[in-house]
Amino acid sequence: EIEPTMAAGPYTLRMYIDNPTIRLRATQTGTPTDAVFVYDWLAACGTGTTMSKVAKESRDETSLSVRVLGNPIVNGRVHVEVAGAAGQPVQFMLTDMRGTVINTHRVEQPALVETHVIDVGRQPVGTLLLRVSTSTQSKTVTLLKKE
What we know:
By secondary structure, the chain is mostly beta strands. It has helices at 41-45, 50-61; strands spanning 21-27, 34-40, 65-69, 77-83, 90-96, 101-107, 113-119, 126-133, 138-145.
């Protein structure tokens, strides 16, 4: 278990099979509720043989990952790092919570780690969704525009 912190991540947590659930709780000062996410990591790992686990780990190395730098957004711009696109075109689609498309951008030949800056300066304060996708994978991250 990790003590509550206000420090920026990433965080490391040692996992044990007698406690297969990770519970993440996020609290924002001035809001009445917490956001809670519960993840059963043991179920996600499966019960396969060592070789199947090695194969899964090899596949995961090339899986699409999206890292947001600066969330909540305070200066009207958000920096996003995308890895695991493996030479495939990458599509960025920013929407509001109603599903209205705000911005789209496509990178035909992404770098090994593709960095993209998205301007949200004209958007009102609130929650936005960024979907990053290739022809085979997709990730959606939640962005919070603070000011």
